[in-house]
Amino acid sequence: MLYLQNQSFWNYVLTVNLRSFDMVFLTLLFTARVNIYEAVAFSKDLSFLLVLSVSKIMTMQRAFGDYTDALKSRTLKKPTRNQIYEYLGSAIAGFLDKNIRESKENFEAMKSRGFHV
Q1: Cα 85 from Cα 36, distance rounded (Å)
Q2: Which residue in 91, 101, 90 sits closest to 64, CA to CA?
Q3: Contact in structure between 94 and 63 (CB atoms under 8 Å)
Q4: Containing domain of residue 25, as a range?
Q5: What tens digit of pLDDT does each residue of 91-115 get?
């Protein structure tokens, strides 16, 4: 709101950038100091949800690496813009298909373990 209060543009930009830096720094500091697994250990449901979330993140990171390796192995020179767009389209479709399939499996697994959602 500094910009709307007739403050200088550079004052506004500096304030926004410092706030962004502050949020990133505090987030990194929090993740470095707090063990998130111990923080949710009081609840069986939250612990299970955290494990599912971390598992999903690791699966998606591995799939992204596979898609990137596939693009590199199928192009001899630097990919053109059209090749990159095709890659992104197929990667997004693959991520969506994989997420839908795994979500159904996770739902069935949670239901069989007594987590009724």
Answers
A1: 37
A2: 91
A3: yes
A4: 1-34
A5: 889 888 888 888 888 888 878 877 7
